[in-house]
Amino acid sequence: MEQLLILLGWVPVACYQIVKKESDKKWMLTGISLGAVIAPISFGLVKMIYATGILKLFGVVGLVLNIIHGPIGYMMATMAGLIKAGVALTGPELVIINLLNALLWASFYGSVGYNIDLKVASEAGAGHPVPVGASPQAG
């Protein structure tokens, strides 16, 4: 099962390959797709810590990523009353946690990607629209 979670890592790669030449929002779309799958990928990589050899390093990377990306969804689900705190999690509860993680991290990485797109467009002089709240520069 962990291998299937790790295969989710191809989703952002495929998204980037699809939109790299056709869209001026390629980094935003890639960020959204990365954020949607980062928590399950990190959970799958954590399971590799029990492997032998070089695969243990992937497990350590997964552990660090899971420490960053995993608990946020759990905290949101317990604060919203969707799951009880301090009890063993079942499959449906893990799905709820990962859906909340996907919403949070997709919006975060999508906004980072949007800012990268703005910077690339401004450096290329593509006449990209001014972000909300910013004043257009004269000249």
UniProtKB/TrEMBL annotation:
Keywords: Membrane, Transmembrane, Transmembrane helix
Record-annotated membrane-spanning stretches: 31-50, 57-83, 95-116
Domain of life from the UniProt record: Bacteria
Listed name of the protein: Uncharacterized protein
